[in-house]
Write a structure and sequence with these properties.
Strand content: 15-25%
Largest sheet: 6 strands, mixed
Structural class: alpha/beta
Distance between the termini: 23 Å
CATH architecture of the largest domain: 3-Layer(aba) Sandwich
Radius of gyration: 23 Å
Shape: flat
Length: 364
Amino acid sequence: MALQVGIVGLPNVGKSTLFNAVSAAGAEAANYPFATIDPNVGMVSVPDDRLDTLVRLSNAAKKIPTTVEFVDIAGLVKGASQGEGLGNQFLNHIQAVDAIVHVVRCFESTDIVHVEGSVDPLRDIEIIDTELVLKDLEACEKRLDRAQRTAKSGDKDAKRAVEILTRLVAHLGDGKAAREFTVPEEDAKVFSDLTLLTAKPVLFACNVTEDDAATGNAYVEQVRSYAAPLGADVVVISAEAEAQISELDDDERAEFLADLGLERSGLDRLITAAYHVLGLLTFFTAGEKEARAWTVTAGSTAPVAAGKIHSDIQRGFIRANVISYADYVACEGEAGAKAKGKMRQEGKEYIVKDGDVIHFLHNT
């Protein structure tokens, strides 16, 4: 399944404009709250110049990039955790995503209404964070109540769950996100099974005008200062500019980006940041039929990577023939890499590296 990233934020901060720019799903962008009612999902190819090179060197008939799903989740408002606006259903939609892109308005405009009446990025972030924490607190209090009833029978697992949930409820009650909660390794599964909203990795997308797309502005610096102690990435992006970029061909796109003082589009930088917060990397398969990119968690072994292609390959794994991307290019393809001894045979313990070009051998 593709990596799924939820786009969240207050109404009218640029979420749907950004979504329209990075996907072909065409969510409605309107100057009023709740223009997006059901979560719109857009599948986006991950741009990777390495894949184009592999297609050329392998004479592949087809190029298949890896993908990211962007989910445009309607604007939350103060009180969403209590059902204000269309809060509860939107908060539930967030639960299904792997990571959260929190879009923050970092531009002034008299044409676009701000739901809180003024531009204040840190206040806006606090509103969203508070609503997510309150929803998690509600869920944990319910789970704690059930665990306490079960623990009365002497169930050891339930007693341990009570200990964890009691600490977690206190943590969330202090307004702290679940991702800041320390969990012993032996309790990691109990914690992950809670699927808490504030346990998800988050990155901030500062929506600015075209003029500020390359350099940011004072509002962006506020967000960076807020995100730094959290270890959260910040991407400066102009949703309006991205909407224009998405309609251009490659040459026009490069020229437009240069005019803005940018080397990469906001989409490229957003995906890179999403990969970073989730600890992902890309490996490749390449042959005459197709050259293809695959996504796997950093630290994954060769059999786990094989399972991304097909579970049968993982079960029947024998070995992996691996060529680093740099060697594949330097040797001008697989044949050259073999001839120069750059193809390695790796076993079940091999940790896949970003850019590896792999051929898996397996029992059928």
